[in-house]
Amino acid sequence: MTFSKTPLFSRSEIIGFAVLAVLIFLILPTFLGTFRLNLFGKYLTYAFVAVGLALCWGAGGILSLGQGVFFGLGGYCMAMFLKLEASTPENTSIQSTPGIPDFMDWNQLTELPAWWIPFHSLTFSLIAVVLVPVTFAFFIGVAMFRRRVGGVYFAIITQAFAAILTILIIGQQGYTGGVNGITDLRTLNGWNIRTGEAKEILYYVNGVLLFAVLFVAHFVRKSKLGRILIAMRDQEDRVRFSGYDVASFKIFIFCLGAAFAGIGGAMFTLQVGFMSPTLVGIVPSIEMVIFCAVGGRLSILGAVYGALLVNWAKTSFSESFPELWLFGLGGLFIAVVMLFPNGLAGIWTEQIMPRLSKLWTARARRAPQTHNASTEKRGAV
């Protein structure tokens, strides 16, 4: 992955990253209480998925309607470790079979399934948070992109995978917790994650990890790979005829988006304290696409703002107008898409930045004139 001689960060990009950092690490923690800050911590976990979609859909032209699958897989990997830690023989002594998760005991399992055993290790679980979604995405990508399946067909197939995984999780209740998911998660290596202080710490961890993901995404977009992805999005056949292996590039960026989603899912489990199939299916996957569309699919920073804005609006509308909040959320989405096709990022690049550039240019021109005028006055004196 090579980079051009142009700077990795332009002036506007530096300003964008700085503004987001101030918002996440200073403004929100200062003005929000623990409960609201925890909500925004949950919103930040969705931003991981939105950033991955900005790479796949915005840069590579790959619209996935199944990102909830990778979000859920990462979340379930973390939830399995936390559930095993909470299911010690002492904590489950009232069960018929102590030492296994409660939902397994309810479904008359008498021992821990073999594929659950490795999740006793935190190291294995953290690796699985990324590796399991990436592996799943790799097989989907190879099956689809090697056969040149793309566009709306790929979107529908990924949506089908989301539906299939949801049905599978609900159907295997004894192994996955079924429709309730994996709940009653208490500690992370002995650290109580249910306290207000723990929620605040996890919020900051979310922010740090999100910026790490943003920097990775930014480097990819600035690299030669990023330019190839944009060329593939606009003229895929021309890129293929130029000798590039288009399928391999698509598989890579799809797997990278899955890794980001898996990290977001794991942080959601820690921040909220559960993981369920309601976060894996078709509806949440479409909502994740909406986050990216509202923020601006051509901008990784815009995707973050889109995730924060849409989820904040969803919470606000549902609290204030319980019966009408879906209409309000739909109206917000329609208004942004119709008035600003490039989302919130388009407002910044098309409206605000040109005006700021004019101001900077005007000030730069005035400065020499003012200096020359003052010099002439001194010479005259």
Describe the protein:
- Helices cover 73% and strands 1% of the residues.
- It is an all-alpha fold.
- The chain has 2 domains: 11-329, no CATH class; 340-375.
- A two-stranded antiparallel sheet has the order 1-2.
- The chain is globular, with a radius of gyration of 24 Å.
- The mean pLDDT is 87.
Number of helical regions: 15
- Side by side, the strands of the main sheet go 1-2
What is the N-to-C succession of helices and strands? HHHHHHHEEHHHHHHHH
Biggest sheet character: 2 strands, antiparallel
Number of DSSP strands?
Answer: 2
Structural shape: globular
Terminal-residue CA separation: 61 Å
- What proportion of the residues form beta strands (DSSP E)? under 5%
Structural class: mainly alpha
Average per-residue pLDDT, rounded, comes to 87
Count of discrete structural domains = 2
Helicity, as a percent range:
over 70%
Whole-number radius of gyration?
24 Å
Low-confidence stretches: none
Give the SSE layout.
Elements: H1 11-31, H2 34-59, H3 67-86, H4 102-106, H5 122-145, H6 151-171, H7 173-176, E1 187-188, E2 191-192, H8 196-222, H9 224-234, H10 236-241, H11 246-272, H12 282-295, H13 300-320, H14 325-339, H15 343-380
Antiparallel strand pairs: 1-2
Helix pairs in contact: 1-8, 2-8, 2-11, 2-12, 2-13, 3-5, 3-11, 5-11, 8-9, 8-11, 12-13, 13-14, 13-15
What's this entry about, in short?
This protein is mostly helical and 381 residues long. It has helices at residues 11-31, 34-59, 67-86, 102-106, 122-145, 151-171, 173-176, 196-222, 224-234, 236-241, 246-272, 282-295, 300-320, 325-339, 343-380, and strands spanning 187-188, 191-192.
